[in-house]
Design goal:
Elements lengths: L9 H9 L7 H11 L4 E4 L6 H13 L9 E4 L3 H14 L7 E4 L6 H9 L3 E4 L1 H8 L11 E5 L1 H6 L3 H8 L7 E6 L4 H10 L4 E3 L11 E7 L5 H9 L7 E4 L3 H13 L4 E4 L5 H13 L4 E4 L14 E4 L6 H8 L9 E7 L4 H11 L25 H33 L31 E2 L2 E2 L10
Parallel strand pairs: 1-6, 1-7, 2-4, 2-5, 3-4, 5-6, 8-13, 9-11, 9-12, 10-11, 12-13
Antiparallel strand pairs: 14-15
Amino acid sequence: MPFTALKLHPTLLQGLKDLGFRRPTSIQAEAIPPALEGRDLLASAMTGSGKTAAFLLPILHKLIGRPRGTTRALVLTPTRELAAQILGDLNDLAVHTPITAAAVYGGVGMGPQEHAFRSGVDFIIGTPGRLLDHFRAPYARLGSLEFLVFDEADRMLDMGFLPDIRRVLRHIPAKRQTFFFSATMPPPIVALTRDMLRNPVTIDVERPTRPATGITQAVYPVAQHLKAPLLLKLLSDASMRDVLVFTRTKHRADRLAKFLGQQHVSVERIHGNRSQAQRTEALAGFKRGTYRVLVATDIAARGIDVSGLGHVVNFDTPPAAEDYIHRVGRTARAESTGTAFTLVSPDEEESVRLIERAIGKRLPRVVVPDFDYAGRNAPPLEVPHAERIAAIRKRKAEDRERARANAARRAAAERGRAGQGPARSAPVDTHPSNPLGGTPPRPGGGPGRRFGRPQRPGRWNRSH
């Protein structure tokens, strides 16, 4: 079925044609018609299946003929990267329309976002926390809102956004059309929708959780301390031109990026401890090919959309099958193909078994023929946790001791300036420039100096 069969506005069809999209994906074909009819939606589909266009297109269609200057649609997302991605997709789809949009998220200045509220852009895509920051001000009023979208609702629930979501709902009209879109639909999300949706159309809620069919998946068993050398060995394959690598922690992301950089691999990293400007530049550099490897934590698993991304590597095995699906779903998007490798240490085998049980198949095990799996002298990527804690405690103890010494020196200096120091006999200054004698210069001063300042030759120290 072509997009023309969905009866979308001609300007949207032109935008789709410019992007090279000729026919809708399954989720788009099932979601767009009831959305155009005004129905609420509860939709679940695989990552990379086209969910974003499935909720943007019907809303854009309805807003094209409406007066400008009023915000009528709000999209809630869990991460900044996902908000920026949705804004980019919206601008691409609406390029031939008068629709305006803005992303509202933390880590950047609020000025441009305030301007978006005041000017009444048609679409706002935002994270719950930053939206609540704006709602404290009188300019952030969404009384004319007609469309509300929850994207990656399960991720927002996992990240503890439910209280913030409920506070956001107090600032928007109860009468609205609401869409719930997510890659997975666990029972807590289904329960939440009962309070927010009116007789929704449900799509693919019962579909088994599994990655896209175009992903070639494999497991590489390896000792924990040999993961970095094995990844470097895999990167020696010239076909791995763009690789998104996921680590368990921010610390490991930093260490892995440093290791790869030392081996002359063009690499950047993206995680929660980096500023928004750094995260934006890292992602943009990866997309344009400046960096061959992007190391990320799960903050990016649902916010990175790189056209034609060929390879995803799980440097650390995700503990949950849903996290695995979202990670590997960064490749083989929009019905393309890609590869997903998972480096598995012995203590991560149980997590692999849970993933295999969830996706309904056993992942093939791969052994690299010319890799040294003994590698007894390979340096560890990460300092052991106990050693890191001991080093932190030692550094803090040194800082406290240094602070006490500084405080004692300052107190002694204050007593000296106030004349409250202990009485002591002062030696007579018999320097030729001070023939009258008296107390010696203060510490830091020398002969012919007053309070540490040089005196002109031939002048006595006036303090004497």
